[in-house]
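Anyone up for a design puzzle?
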């Protein structure tokens, strides 16, 4: 363990470039890390079923998904933190009144609160370039654990929701969509479950990210690296800033912090 580190990678804008492609230099870097005995993990806002292909391609079975609400260590579920059911029911009613669609997401699937292909849902989810698309089931949140919702609204419409629903955090990931998480839930919290279980000291913890949902992670992890294409808020709290994802930013960052030559 003395020379072994754990490295957490965000997906969109970090592992994957702007075309949702995995740069060859990034893939090689991940396997080089593992060949040196390091633990490599993913920390993403995506649902587990939204990055199956990446996990298989990179042979990674440890991950923090749903921004920390569903954590898997070496293929086994380590920690879950679902949304409060009563508050979610109230959110559903409010969103319906405001004509703001919702997508409910559990560990296996996702369903939408509106029957037709809503333009905001279609536009934002298609940017992820995933094969799965939410079908209509307005009662999907009942009787199951929902780890994250997508609330579809524009401008600063989430501000009113933030005021009214203190048991949730609202983090914008797209001009038309906001992640709805349990209050205080974050990638940083999910990562801590893994690092505590494996016993990695803070000096041996690394994290790469670019988005607003990476801010807590980059703030907490001792060796944090913001991508060159990262949001200003992410860059402001990171210990290091590497090149952009489309400029071999992962490889450059790993070399910069001394994990790779």
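Challenge accepted. My sequence:
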């Amino acid at each position: 363990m003395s020379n072994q580190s754990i490295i957490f990678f965000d997906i969109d804008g970090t592992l994957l470039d702007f075309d949702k492609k995995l740069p060859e230099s990034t893939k090689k870097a991940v396997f080089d890390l593992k060949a040196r005995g390091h633990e490599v993990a993913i920390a993403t806002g995506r649902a587990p079923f939204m990055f199956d292909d990446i996990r298989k391609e990179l042979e990674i079975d440890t991950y923090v998904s749903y921004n920390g609400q569903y954590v898997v260590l070496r293929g086994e579920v380590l920690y879950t933190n679902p949304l409060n059911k009563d508050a979610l029911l109230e959110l559903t009613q409010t969103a319906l009144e405001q004509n703001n669609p919702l997508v409910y997401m559990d560990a296996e699937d996702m369903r939408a609160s509106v029957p037709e292909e809503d333009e905001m849902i279609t536009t934002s989810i298609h940017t992820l370039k995933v094969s799965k698309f939410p079908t209509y089931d307005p009662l999907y949140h009942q009787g199951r654990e929902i780890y994250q919702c997508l609330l579809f609204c524009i401008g600063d419409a989430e501000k009113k929701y933030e005021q009214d629903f203190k048991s949730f955090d609202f983090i914008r990931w797209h001009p038309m969509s906001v992640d709805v998480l349990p209050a205080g839930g974050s990638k940083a919290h999910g990562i801590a479950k893994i690092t505590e279980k494996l016993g990695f000291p803070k000096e041996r913890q690394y994290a790469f990210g670019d988005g607003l949902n990476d801010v807590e992670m980059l703030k907490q992890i001792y060796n944090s690296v913001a991508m060159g294409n990262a949001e200003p808020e992410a860059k402001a709290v990171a210990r290091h800033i590497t090149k952009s994802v489309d400029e071999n930013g992962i490889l450059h960052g790993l070399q910069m912090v001394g994990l790779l030559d």
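A detail worth pointing out: The radius of gyration is 18 Å.
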